[in-house]
Design a protein that fits this description.
Layout: H1 3-23, H2 30-37, H3 41-54, E1 59-63, E2 67-71, H4 77-80, H5 85-97, H6 103-124
Antiparallel strand pairs: 1-2
Helix pairs in contact: 1-3, 2-3, 5-6
């Protein structure tokens, strides 16, 4: 596995965890992160913290005060993420300069960025 593939994998895991936190109304626990990503408890905590650092809107959701869970209570992804034209252009440049089997994944990320930006601009209008 190339060094760039490792970085891409981490980014992919970050977004997968973000989507998990948003999709589950009760949020996700550290144990669920460990199971989903096959990682240690400490790595799961780092992953959770990475999402919290980027998205301070992450809520702590307790379940019977025994298991802490993290997620988003009153947010949709389009309210949390905003991409500028410059960021999308930067991804296009990265794609052009990145020769790898990951080009379809990079295209997918760029398409999602554009869709989120378009939805946000329509909601503002």
């Amino acid at each position: 596995m190339a060094k760039d593939d490792i970085r891409y994998s981490r980014m992919s895991d970050f977004f997968q965890l973000l989507y998990m936190m948003m999709a589950e109304p009760r949020g996700v626990s550290i144990d669920e992160i460990c199971d989903e990503f096959n990682v240690s408890r400490r790595t799961a905590e780092r992953m959770r913290d990475a999402v919290k650092n980027v998205f301070p809107q992450v809520d702590v959701i307790s379940e019977n005060d025994k298991v802490k869970r993290w997620g988003f209570i009153n947010y949709a992804l389009k309210e949390l993420v905003e991409f500028t034209d410059e960021e999308i252009a930067a991804m296009e440049v990265i794609k052009q300069n990145y020769r790898s089997r990951l080009i379809p994944e990079i295209d997918s990320i760029i398409d999602k960025m554009k869709v989120l930006r378009e939805k946000k601009s329509k909601n503002v209008s």
